[in-house]
Amino acid sequence: MTADPLLDRPAGAAARAARHTVVHVSAHYPPYLGGLEKVAQALALFRREAGLPVQVVTSDDRPSPRPSPRPSSPAQAPGVPQAPDDEDRYVRRLRSREVLHTAVMPGLHRALRRTPRPALLHLHVAQAYVPEVAWAVCRRERLPYVVHLHLDVGPSGPAGGLLKVYKPLVLARVLRDAAAVVVFTAEQREAVVDRYRLDPARVVVIPNGVGREYFLDRARTLPDRPTVLFVGRLAVQKNLPLLLEALDGAGDRFDTVLVGDGDLGAALRARVRELGLRGVRFHGRADGEELRDLYRAADVFVLPSEREGMPLVLLEALAMGLPVVATDIPGTRDVVHDGRNGRLVPLGDPAALRQALLDVTGDPATYAALAASARDLAAQYSWTVVGDRFEQLYATVLAER
């Protein structure tokens, strides 16, 4: 993990940080399913279980319930402990409506102004609205805040052009005024500093973590017909058409399970029919023990994304001992090391993705070595370590005020 001056906690700063309420501000929160949401929950629970003051302010947007093959708490999200029964005491869900795929919460400004003092805001950022509202409140109320930049998305869709104006004029100001900006990797740090003209000393690298319940306690062996698993949103960012093109001509070698839901579900199902792919199954969303069972039943994890932060699903898959085949993009390449715990392939090359899947599953000894290395690498990450690094950051930020 990267050494960083902002993580050198000054003497006595921890006691001051312990008196502050850390308020996690996120557009969504579990049971809404996604990496950002799981991180926010994991960090809130870390502080809660340590007996430190914490609040969460989020939208009331929740996924529609879906029948599950096994009982599961609706408040449980994959990769983090089950939410406590008293969650309503510290999680405030605000009325919201979706505008251009963004959860707009008219009551967010008022809710943040009523934050118990002293407080520090932790902004989980991947889209517009939450950052600028929180920034305005923090300026007015003189509240310190840190920005957790989960994903710096580029323009896409009918409203994508708005980002070309929003990012340099609005988001850049939010980032520059933050006490610290958190990114997942050193490569992302360089990109963010350059793109938004930030002070490098204020940009901190803290990776994601993985829950201990994801660590598989047995060695994996290669079956005659391997199962390829994808977990994530059925959205443009995840680039699933690339996977379907890669399976064309090799789909009879694998069973493929796509876990998740999203706007592209119908189009992807139609594409599977057009290609005549057999053995491709759309499972729908899954979390908790159901998701862990899907990881256990799989043999290879695939992530063909166009862009990522540091995907939690990769850490979960590695902890489960699954070799990973993924596109060679920032965030992913920091977790997947080509030839060691999986394979990296060029973005937009279905033939390379197809060959990587065949290579990983072509030899039992190679497969076993990749699986063992995957599990060993995942052991370097834990929410306990990540949570403590954030506590160090909070303490340093507050000591400077």
Topology:
Elements (H helix, E strand, L loop, with lengths): L12 H7 L1 E5 L9 H15 L4 E6 L31 E4 L2 E3 L2 E3 L3 H6 L5 E7 L4 H12 L3 E5 L10 H18 L2 E4 L2 H11 L6 E3 L21 E5 L8 H8 L7 E5 L5 H11 L4 E5 L3 H10 L2 E4 L8 H8 L4 E4 L14 E4 L4 H11 L3 H15 L4 H17 L2
Parallel strand pairs: 1-2, 1-6, 2-3, 6-7, 7-8, 8-9, 10-11, 10-13, 11-12, 13-14, 14-15
Antiparallel strand pairs: 4-5
Helix pairs in contact: 1-13, 2-13, 7-8, 7-11, 10-12
Short structural description:
The chain has 13 helices and 15 strands. The protein is an alpha/beta fold and 401 residues long.
Structural class: alpha/beta
Number of contiguous helices = 13
CATH class of the largest domain: Alpha Beta
Helix content: 25-40%
Question: In whole angstroms, how far apart are the ends?
Answer: 27 Å
Number of strands: 15
Looking at the structure, the CATH topology of the largest domain is: Rossmann fold
Q: What is the percentage of strand-forming residues?
A: 15-25%
Gross morphology is globular
Radius of gyration: 21 Å
**Overall mean confidence score, pLDDT:** 89
Strand order of the main beta sheet, please? 3-2-1-6-7-8-9
**How many domain modules?**
2
The unreliable regions are 67-81
Largest sheet: 7 strands, parallel
CATH homologous superfamily grouping of the largest domain: Glycogen Phosphorylase B
Corresponding CATH architecture of the largest domain: 3-Layer(aba) Sandwich
Order of helices and strands: HEHEEEEHEHEHEHEEHEHEHEHEEHHH
